Amino acid sequence: MTLLEIRNLSKHFASGGRNVAALTDIFLTLEPGETLGLAGASGSGKSTLARILMRLLPADRGSIRFRGEDWLALSGAGLRRRRAGMQMVFQDVLGAFNPRATVASVLDDPLRIHGVVPKAERRGEVAALLDRVGLPTSYADRSIREISGGQRQRIAIARAIATRPSLIVLDEAVSALDVSIRGKILELLVELQRERGIAYLFVSHDLAVLRAVSHRIAVMDAGQLVEAGTARQMIENPQSPTARALIAAVPRLMTGPPQGHKHEF
Amino acid sequence: MKVIQHLIRTPESAIGLGILVLLALVALLAPVLSPGDPLRIAARPLLAPFTDPSFPLGTDRLGRDVLAGIIHGARTSLAVGIAAAFAAIAFGFCIGLTAGFAGGLVDEALMRVVDAFQIVPSFLLALAFVSVIGASAPVVVIAISLGAWADPARLTRAQVLSIRERDYVASARVIGMHPVEIALKEILPNALPPVLALSAIIVAAAILTEAALSFLGLGDPNVVTWGSMIAEGRNILRSSPSLSIFPGIALIVTVVGVYLFSEGLTKTLAGRRAEE
Ligand SMILES: Nc1ncnc2c1ncn2[C@@H]1O[C@H](COP(=O)(O)OP(=O)(O)OP(=O)(O)O)[C@@H](O)[C@H]1O
Ligand SMILES: [Mg+2]
Predict the structure, then answer these.
(1) Residues ≥6 apart with Cβ < 8 Å to A14
(2) Is A84 within 8 Å of chain B by CB?
(3) Which end of chain A is more exposed for a tag (fewer CB within 10 A), N or C?
(4) In which element (H, E) is residue A208 found?
(5) Which CATH number belongs to the domain containing residue A237 in this structure?
(6) How far is B264 from chain A (nearest CA, A)?
(7) Smallest Cα–Cα separation from A193: which of A171, A213, A217, A222?
(8) In CATH, which of 3.40.50.720, 1.10.3720.10, 3.40.50.1360, 1.10.10.10 is domain B2-275?
(9) pLDDT, tens only, A177-199
(10) In this prediction, does ipTM exceed 0.85?
(11) More confident site: A259 or A67
């Protein structure tokens, strides 16, 4: 069964007399365990799509079906409960955490809210999550401010997988990280996908990153979906000028077929 | 405790902190430092300062000990100042939170009220309030906080509006946190510190307003205050200027101390935010 089905999704912003069509009639689908890369220049509407999907922003028009349910019709407690199934990792590795939080409290919140494990086992589960994302369990008592950007993004990933979601939206999740760390985080994401069958909507303006992790890539331009196809197809034979421009922006984009989920950095 | 370490590092806030600690000690220990009622007659009237070691600052027209008045006056000044600032910040914070969270018409209405209170000079407001209701310590506190709650309300609202848009609030929504919990755990604790940084300046203004009210005879008549001492001394300013000068100095030192401290506090908070 299709995991996610976006139909006719539109959104405009009216700010200061200007009317910006941030999304126009977007159609997208995502299968379980699949990674859909979402490319596009700055301002093309990628984050807007991600935020509507996360129900952080209302849509003007269109429908979203997630796990067979009308996702946009949910509200209140029903929505909060089902949010466990769809999580998000943000670009800003610091802004995504309450400055007063500790690592343990960040990971404990989703476990507590969704009752993922019985209360007595929550500490153990926090440790297991830390371990899974490659951090020492002693980090639990640290303040979020005391750890590095790469480590924070690992915590963000741990928080996202805590509720055992079937879809994670990653909005420029590795863009702010050092190149050396970026590869390790991508590797972690790919491992988690293989292990748990999580689907990713991977937003990035960097086609090299998308090429490394995506099964399919969709390209957006000025709020419209201009092209979509398998990652390989898209990069070897781009149809739209937008896609060609994005490819031209990456000097050494490997064009070989993706071998499973290998990525070179 | 880190905050205090930061504060001591800059000289001006260290001085400010020193003055405030000293004042607080004087205020707290007033009954020990100068036992008995400071309003009772202690010696011959108009004893000049620095002449009698048991009354170092002399006595006033009625023979009351000036030093005792200053020591006990510190109590009143600090107590009224802190109580008024606390009331103003607590009230302003609640109004600002309500406006920021409710939005729409509630926000609009509350902010017009805030505007109104900001336009009216706070001293006039306090003056009018005390003259109508009558002078007593709680009335003076309320009168002063009436003119001081608008700034914290405005700042709190701005904080709430800005924090609401942060990614960590979005993260909290994404993990399914209840809106009430988001307000209490994610927004409120982060909105408070900058508002608290206003407190020192409000305390300083409150101390001055209290002194001005007492000067005009609108303070609580049963306690000695620096403002009422200055007012008393004014009648014989030419023959015994020290009667007005000593409480005046106490007032200036206090306000400068509070001001220096608040500067340091603001810088410390800003610095900590920059480090984050
Ligand atoms: N809250 C808002 N109010 C008004 N306009 C907005 C708002 N959010 C986004 N926009 C506009 O909508 C368009 C799409 O923005 P969006 O953030 O989705 O782009 P993006 O593809 O994520 O860009 P980037 O790669 O820079 O993150 C832009 O023109 C932007 O200016
Ligand atoms: Mg974006």
Answers:
(1) A20
(2) yes
(3) N
(4) helix A207-213
(5) 3.40.50.300
(6) 22
(7) A213
(8) 1.10.3720.10
(9) 888 899 999 999 999 999 999 99
(10) yes
(11) A67
A114 Cβ under 8 Å from any chain B Cβ: yes
Hey, CA dihedral for A136, A137, A142, A144, is it positive or negative? Answer: positive
The answer for residues whose C-beta is within 8 angstroms of residue B20's C-beta and 6 or more apart is: B257, B258, B261
**A37 domain-assigned:** yes
CA distance readout (Å), A159 to A128, B14, B174, B248:
12, 42, 10, 59
pLDDT band at B274 (very low <50, low <70, confident <90, very high): low
Tens-digit pLDDT profile for residues B34-90: 888 888 887 788 878 888 888 888 888 888 888 989 999 998 888 998 999 999 999
Lateral strand order in the sheet of A18-30: A18-30, A4-15, A61-66, A69-70
Q: Which residues of A touch B189 (CB under 8 A)?
A: 100
Tell me which of A7-16, A103-112, A242-251 is least confident.
A242-251
**Interface check A244 vs B, CB under 8 A:** no
Are B177 and A80 in contact (CB < 8 Å)? Answer: yes
Distance CA A63, CA A168 (A): 19
**pLDDT at residue number B52:** 81
